Amino acid sequence: MGKAYTIAVVPGDGTGPEVIREGLKVLAAASKKFKFTYTTKAFDFGGERYLKTGKTIDENDIKELTKYSAIYLGAIGHPEVKPGILETGVLLKLRFSLDQYINLRPIRLYDAAFCPLKDKKPEDIDFVVVRENSEGLYKGMGEFKDKGTKNEVAIQLSYNTRKGVERCIRYAFEYCRMRNKRKKLTLCGKTNVLTYAWDLWQRTFNEVAKEYPDITTDYAHVDATTMWFVKNPEWFDVIVTDNMFGDIITDLGAMIQGGMGIAAGGNINPEGVSMFEPIGGSAPKYTGKNVINPLAAICAAGMMLETLGEKEAAHAIEAAAIKVVTTKLKSLAAGKMGYTTEGVGDLVVKSLGK
Ligand code: IPM
Ligand code: MN
Fold it and tell me: Are strands 153-159 and 136-145 parallel, antiparallel or unpaired?
C-alpha cells in the first residue's frame, strides 16, 4: 500500500461545496488507481458559519489545521457579509497563519477553442505565476488621517522584507529548474515607480540569480506584463512577483487559459501545510444549480497531490481534465459546458480510468 494522507476539507461558500464534491470524487478514483490512501475531515469555515456565530477563524482552528497533510478549499465569500471580513478573517488568515508564502498559479491553455486570444494555441500559453503570498500590500499596514474630513488621507503600505522576498524568489528559481521547460524566470514588478519595494526585489533577484546559471532571467514591468499576456504569452515560462501584482495578473492569466472555471492555485508552505483552491470565488449566482465548472477544483486536487509527492496521480488527473476539455465540453463557462457540474466530475473519473 502507498502513503496515507489526512486532508482538511473546507468546502466554504456559494458553489464551493459543489465543486469540492467533484474534486473529492476524482481524488477517490485516483487513490484507488494509484494506491495511496487518505482520510478527510470537513471544516465549516466561511460565510454561513460567520452569519450564525460571528466567528471567522481563530488560533485553535489554525492549530488544528496544522495537523493535516494538506487543506482543500472550495471558496470563501458571501453576498450577505460585508466585503473584507471573510477575506481577511478566513482566507488571508489561513494563508498568513499557516505561512503559505507562495501562491502558485499555473496558466495553461488546454484547448485553443476556449482561448479568447486570436491564433494562440496550447503550446503558446503554458507558464506559471509564483505570487508572493504573505507580504506586500496584503500585510494590511496603513492608517487613516483625519478620517471623514475633507483633509482625509488614507495610507496603505507595501511591506517587503528581505527574508520574505528572498524565500519567494528562491522558490521561483527552484520551481523553474524543476519544471525544466524553457528555464526562464521573469521578475514582474514596477522598478520605475515603486523605487523602494522593487529596488529590494530587483537586488535580491539579481543576487539569487547568480546561483542559478542554468536559468535565463528577465524583467518586465507589471503593466507591460499584462500587455504581453495578451500579445505574446509564449514568452513566459515562470514569473515571480509580489502579492498585489500576482493577484491582478493571475485573473488575466485565468482568462487567457479559458476562464475562472479552469484556473487552480496552491497556497504553499514548502515546510508546512499547504492549501489548494480553485481561484474563481464563490459565484453566488450559480449556487446550487449544478452548472458551475468543477475543473478548477479538480485541477487544484491534482496540484495538491503533486505537492504531496503523488506525481503520477497528479499528472493523470491533469491528463484526464485535458481529455474532457478537448473532447467533451462545449464551453468552460458555468451553464454552457453541455454537462452539469456532476457530469463533468463523472467524465474526469471515467477518463482517469481504473
Ligand atoms: C485571490 C482572491 C483573494 C486575494 C481575495 C478573495 C482576498 O482574489 O485568491 O486571488 O486577493 O488574494
Ligand atoms: Mn484574486
Answer: antiparallel
Cβ-contact 5, 308 below 8 angstroms? yes
Question: What is the reported pLDDT for 191?
Answer: 98
d(CA 243, CA 221): 15
For ligand 1, mutation pick of 88, 92, 255 (most atoms within 8 Å of CB)? 92
Burial of 110 per CB tally in 10 Å (0-12, 13-18, 19+): buried
Q: What is the CATH number of domain 126-256?
A: 3.40.718.10
Atom of ligand 1 nearest to the CA of 76: 6
pLDDT in tens, 159-210: 999 999 999 999 999 999 999 999 999 999 999 999 999 999 999 999 999 9
Work out whether the CA dihedral 313, 314, 319, 324 comes out positive or negative.
Answer: positive
Burial string for 293-317 (b: 16+ CB within 10 Å, else e) reads bbbbbbbbbbbbbbbbebeebbebb
Multiple choice CATH, 1-101+270-354, 3.40.630.30, 3.40.718.10, 3.40.50.1950, 2.60.40.420: 3.40.718.10
Instruction: Provide the grid cell at 224.
Output: 507591460
pLDDT of residue 240: 99
Contacts of 354 (CB under 8 A, 6+ apart): 32, 33
Percentage of residues of the chain with pLDDT beyond 70: 100
Around ligand 1, the residues with Cβ closer than 6 Å are 87, 91-92, 247, 279
Query: By the 8 A CB rule, do 352 and 27 touch?
Result: no
